[in-house]
Amino acid sequence: MSELFDSYRSSYGEAVEGSIRFSGLRHDFFLHAKAELLRRLIVEQDLRRGNAGVRALDVGCGVGSLHPHLTDVFDRLDGCDVSEESLSRASRENPSVAYSTCTTSRLPYADGMFDLAFASCVVHHVPPASWLDFFREMRRVVRRGGLACIIEHNPYNPLTRMAVLRCPFDKDAVLLSARKAASLLGQADFRDVRCEHFLLLPSARPLAGKLERALAGLPLGAQYACVARA
Ligand SMILES: C[S@@+](CC[C@H](N)C(=O)[O-])C[C@H]1O[C@@H](n2cnc3c(N)ncnc32)[C@H](O)[C@@H]1O
Known about the structure:
Elements: H1 2-6, H2 12-20, H3 27-44, E1 55-59, E2 76-81, H4 84-93, E3 98-101, E4 114-120, H5 131-141, E5 142-153, H6 158-166, H7 178-187, E6 191-198, H8 206-214, E7 223-229
Parallel strand pairs: 1-2, 1-4, 2-3, 4-5
Antiparallel strand pairs: 5-7, 6-7
């Protein structure tokens, strides 16, 4: 896996753009939607606890494409990945983020270090036999009362399927449904698991956001987020 994404260190964004070009949307549109979802999560789930800062971990952060969108969302952001080459680009482009390489299935962090651990479009690149261990590691590094957020492709959305088919690094991807992700989070000792589908409408306007949230329980959006409490 590290070799695959090492080879996309300079062309990751272009590969994603190529796979979604048919939709008329840019990669930034998707990154912005994910950053807004994480921003909303912190407020709605009361993660800040008074004035305490929020320390977050992006598991499988790749070249750090999401990080320029998160500069004012967390007080401290860490990112880790199996691809060292991706991380060296990420740290050049995002000097305020602390990056570490994952060399084993154990994340390189102490227990309970983070208020939030999230993984965006990573689990479908992890072999299914390792999914539960992946979620258990996220659980280990999140403090009690903190959150995990799994953002994944919605396998029931035909446009998502088309984008995955067109994406050169998704050849071996195994998509998992929100129901499966929720079940794994439960098995990994998370509680209060809830999932929402998003990226349904090609607009970032507030009205589109309201409509999307009203329909979030239905498996319609291009992606979903499963959020759970440690
Ligand atoms: C499609 S990219 C997503 C990158 C980033 N999260 C984003 O949304 O732009 C998937 C990333 O997951 C990383 N990855 C795959 N398996 C991993 C694992 N077990 N632990 C950490 N990172 C992993 C890959 O190296 C790759 O950078």
